[in-house]
Design brief:
This protein is of the alpha/beta class and 603 residues long. It has 22 helices and 15 strands. The strands form 4 sheets. The chain has a 5-stranded parallel beta sheet, with helices on both faces. A 4-stranded antiparallel beta sheet has the order 1-2-4-3. A 3-stranded antiparallel beta sheet has the order 8-9-10. A hairpin with a 3-residue loop joins strand 3 and strand 4. The longest helix has 25 residues. It binds one RNA strand of 77 nucleotides through strand 10, strand 15, helix 18 and helix 21.
RNA sequence: GCACGGUUAGCUCAGUUGGAUAGAGCGUUGGCCUCCGAAGCCAAAGGUCAUUGGUUCGAAUCCAAUACCGUGUACCA
């Protein structure tokens, strides 16, 4: 039986006869049907060979039907002859000959098959089969490429979760765009996805923010205090202070700098930062379903709830950690702490739950948070974190495994850092020198589409160079324009059609027969791969596969456009080519939508 | 030291159930508009897939060591 696809494609349960029947009566073949047919054909051939005694009965006849990388190798390729050569005690190519001879004949979708390379059997689809794809795309429209393969699966994606202590920077933006794209991809295969933002509105950093604001606030009234070590010097702190003064006047003035800012000031500052963050996310068109407050964990006693559960499992103890190996921090001292036995779950050391002042660590809150997520009944949880948080993965997964018993519930995906460039020169960023570039400034300069596309073009696992100049370029240098331009060209053709008052005739099956140039069949073949690309990108949570596919499709489209006249004098040919071109436009639009990038009709 | 990520063309990077002659853009060189948008197309040159070994019909891909780069490395978030 075929092992290709496994649960990823329509199982090849239909009989060959059924599929042949379907091809005769249905308007079109879907890619899944073709794949299923080919798997059936090969299976049937292998069975016949087994009856002939080429294989003994106990040999499992597994093989794969795959998409060849090189277009010269046909539409599908089968590796059966190579995988089974040993069992058959035949050289791969000889076995391939026998398989080929045993393939059932007379079906309509496959034009020809041939042996190539070390023993691949390549299948070339008929032009008719490829053309029918236009019907699929016409019928499914913006649904083309979407599926229900993971229908009903409930997934939560937590991403961004930038601290509300300042404006978002480029790294946050990358995480935001990446998370958003993963959500869209999962939705495209039928998952029910919830987007969540975890607000770190408790803890020391918020107090530092409050204190920094308070100092700037007093400056507005003529009171100068030096900014203490560790406080935030950025200009935005002054903006918050001004807003505080404008909203609440002088009521927070004090003769001396208090050790802690009043809670109202802290809350005001946090609220202000959150407002900026929401605005920035909106600018990038990234919505959230839930904004989850860390503070609520403390207030509702959920941290105790989580710790009690760990205690009941005997996973908490009072202890002293060994000093870390390698470079020792200057102020390291042995101190007894309340520790969680994360080493039992694969972590390197046990982790502290309470600080020396008795308050809970960030980790303790994170345990409670993730327990809460687990209790909300998701099938899986995905966190998108910056690479600098990589060290926390094991401990959070340990805690979740301890509490939920589900080891694979949480998947953490790290997004590497972003380096900012302008015309090839690195843009040095320093908070102190005031040369820090915020996400908002970049989005406003180059536009949300360019920012999104660039961030999605690179796999999240490698660091990314973002060049402001390139992102704005309106040439081939800029991939987002290249793709959008292809889409705009499609609509430009439709506008020209209208201007010349030519009829927009729907292409008949006979019209489509005129599509037989190599460039046309290649374009069709490329279009047929789109649903598989979406599926793969979603399953692997690797959005970059979509931009790369779109670049390939756009390139093929531009080549076609340059080589052939779409608005031909011959109305039949014109109708056929327009149908193909519209299908391209549809798929480009679908792909861009999946990335949250606009598909403009005019540029 | 340890953990995680990375190393593919001059530059920036794609390349996952292991697959055929390893790809794209930029840059370089040379071509294509009396014609639907040249914001485009075509062609050429450019490679020890960091190194070494292993697994097998087959390795950039899997495994093991090594080298170099990045991030993190008690109580911060």
């Amino acid at each position: 039986m075929p092992t290709s696809g496994k649960d990823r494609y329509t199982p090849a349960t239909q009989s060959i006869a059924y599929l042949q029947q379907a091809s005769r009566y249905a308007l079109f073949w879907t890619v899944d049907m073709v794949r299923a047919l080919i798997e059936q054909l090969v299976s049937s051939a292998l069975q016949q060979l087994q009856e002939q005694g080429i294989f003994s009965a106990e040999h499992s006849l597994s093989f794969q039907v795959e998409r060849p990388r090189d277009k010269n190798h046909g539409d599908f390729a089968c590796n059966a002859a190579m995988v089974l050569a040993k069992s058959a005690r035949l050289p791969p190519r000889q076995l391939a000959e026998k398989i080929l001879a045993a393939l059932p004949v007379g079906q309509t979708a496959v034009e020809r098959c041939e042996i190539a390379g070390p023993g691949f059997i390549n299948f070339y689809l008929t032009a008719q089969t490829l053309r029918s794809l236009i019907r699929t795309i016409e019928q499914q429209g913006e649904q083309f490429g979407r599926s229900q393969m993971a229908a009903g699966r409930r997934i939560q994606v937590e991403f961004v979760s930038a601290n509300p202590t300042g404006p978002m920077h480029l790294g946050h933006g990358r995480g935001a765009v990446n998370g958003d794209a993963i959500v869209r991809l999962l939705q495209a295969i039928g998952c029910v996805v919830e987007r969540e933002y975890y607000i770190n509105d408790a803890g020391a950093q918020t107090l530092v923010l409050g204190r920094s604001v308070l100092i700037r606030y007093h400056e507005l009234f003529g009171q100068q205090w030096p900014m203490p070590e560790g406080c935030y010097p950025g200009d935005y702190v002054r903006d918050i202070a001004i807003a505080l003064r404008d909203a609440q006047g002088a009521r927070w003035l004090t003769p001396d700098l208090p050790a802690e800012a009043p809670p109202e000031v802290v809350d005001f500052a946090i609220a202000r930062c959150l407002e900026w963050i929401r605005d920035d996310l909106q600018l990038l068109n990234i919505p959230f379903d839930t904004w989850f407050s860390e503070r609520s964990l403390h207030q509702e006693g959920l941290i105790q709830h989580a710790i009690i559960q760990l205690e009941e499992k005997g996973l908490i103890y009072e202890g002293v950690l060994q000093p870390p190996k390698g470079k020792l921090p200057d102020d390291w001292e042995a101190r007894p702490q309340r520790l969680f036995r994360s080493t039992l779950f694969g972590d390197e050391v046990d982790r502290a739950l309470q600080k020396s002042d008795g308050s809970y660590t960030y980790f303790a809150a994170d345990i409670a948070y993730h327990l809460h997520k687990a209790e909300r009944g998701f099938d899986s949880l995905i966190n998108i974190w910056g690479a600098d948080h990589g060290g926390y993965i094991k401990r959070v997964q340990s805690a979740l495994a301890a509490l939920s018993g589900r080891k694979d519930l949480l998947e953490v995906r790290l997004v590497q850092m972003v380096n900012l460039f302008r015309a090839g020169q690195p843009v040095r960023m320093s908070k102190r020198a005031g040369t820090f570039v915020t996400l908002r400034e970049v989005v406003e300069e180059v536009g949300a589409d360019a920012v999104r596309f660039w961030f999605l073009l690179r796999s999240s696992g490698s660091s990314l160079d973002f060049d402001l100049e390139l992102a704005m370029a309106k040439t081939n240098d800029n991939p987002v324009f290249y793709v959008q331009y292809a889409h705009a060209r499609v609509h430009s053709l439709l506008r020209r059609l209208h201007e010349r008052e030519l009829p927009d005739i729907p292409a008949s099956d006979q019209h489509l027969q005129l599509l037989c140039a190599e460039a046309e069949l290649e374009l069709l073949s490329l279009l047929s791969r789109y649903p598989e690309v979406v599926e793969q990108a979603a399953l692997e949570k690797e959005p970059q596969k979509i931009p790369y596919y779109l670049l390939e499709l756009a390139a093929a489209f531009h080549t076609y456009y340059n080589g052939y006249k779409i608005l031909d004098e011959d109305p039949d040919l014109r109708a056929a080519r327009l149908a193909l071109v519209k299908a391209c436009g549809q798929v480009i639009a679908n792909g861009l939508t999946l990335l949250g990038v606009n598909a403009p009709e005019q540029m």
